[in-house]
């Protein structure tokens, strides 16, 4: 599975920022629950 995670590129658009937050959240969830897969 490909993971998308960038810290430097935070868009000024609020909707894009929400999508970015969702991607980072999913990234951390995937990292945390990886042993349970």
**DSSP, total strands:** 0
Note the run of SSEs as H and E.
Answer: H
In percent, how helical is the residue content? 40-55%
Main sheet, how many strands, which sense, barrel? none
Number of helical segments?
1
Question: Could you characterize the architecture of this molecule?
Answer:
There is one protein chain. This protein is mainly alpha-helical. The chain has one helix and no strands. The protein has one helix at residues 14-32. The protein starts with 13 loop residues before the first helix and ends in a 5-residue tail after the last helix. The model has no long low-confidence stretch (mean pLDDT 69).
In short:
This protein has 37 residues and is an all-alpha fold. The chain is 51% helix and 0% strand. The chain has one helix at 14-32.
Keywords, separated by commas or semicolons:
37 residues, 0% strand, single chain, mainly alpha
Draw up the topology in text.
Elements: H1 14-32
């Amino acid at each position: 599975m490909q993971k998308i995670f960038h810290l430097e590129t935070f868009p000024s658009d609020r909707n894009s920022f929400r999508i970015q937050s969702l991607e980072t959240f999913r990234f951390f969830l995937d990292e945390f629950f990886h042993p349970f897969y």
